[in-house]
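Question: what's this shape?

___
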Amino acid sequence: MAARCPPKSGRSPLPSSRQAFAGDRLAIHTHDDTGNAVAGSLAAVDAGARQIQGTLNGLGERCGNANLTTLIPTLLLKEPYASTYDIGVTRSQLAGLTRASRMLDDILNRVPTRAAPYVGASAFAHKAGLHASAILKDPSTYEHIDPAVVGNAAHHSDVAIRRASPTCALAFPTWGSTCQRRRRAWAVSWNGSRTAKTAVIPMTPRRRALS
C-alpha cells in the first residue's frame, strides 16, 4: 500500500490505514525532499508501520531516500525502539556500519558526507573550548554513543586544539597531550554485499504483540 501525506497537515496517513491492515503489512517508503525522510520513517513506526524501506547513505531519486546508516543505529540503540523491536541487525554487525558506508561511497567515487550522523568524519569530532574540555572529562557529555559501536572514532583535531584561547589553555593544560594525538586507524570488519540497493528494515516486536 502506498499513500501520500496530506499537503496541508503533513501528517502520516498510517493511523487510518492501520484500521484496514495488520501492522506487519504496513511499510513506509520516504524520500528526503524536505530533509525529513528519517524522521518520517520513525514517525511511521510510531504510527504502526512495521517495515522501513531505505538505502545505504540515503542514495535515491531526487534528494534521496531514508538513510539506513542513520535509521539502523537509531532503531538498534535508541529508545523506545531498542527494547521494543528486533530489526535483524546484531551489535557486531553494527560495528561495520561506517566501513560499509564509506565502501559504498568509494565504489561510487563519491566524497563521504562529513556531517553524516553516526558514520560521518565529523559525527564525533570535537574542537577546543567547552566541548573539548567536557570530552576530556567525560565523553558521554557530547557523544551520544560510543563511536566504536558503529565503527567510527572520535577525532580531536590538532588544528582545532591550537585555536584554543590562552585563557582556556591555562585552565585546561591537559589539552597539550591531546595535541599529540593522531587520528585512529579504522579497525572494523564488514561481512556483507558490495551491491547497493533499496533495503528493508523489518520491525519485529520484542516484548508485545502488535495491537
User: Anything to note?
Assistant: Residues 158-196 have pLDDT under 50 and may be disordered. The radius of gyration is 20 Å. The longest strand covers residues 51-54. The beta strands are 28-29, 51-54, 85-86, 125-126, 155-156, 199-202, 204-205.
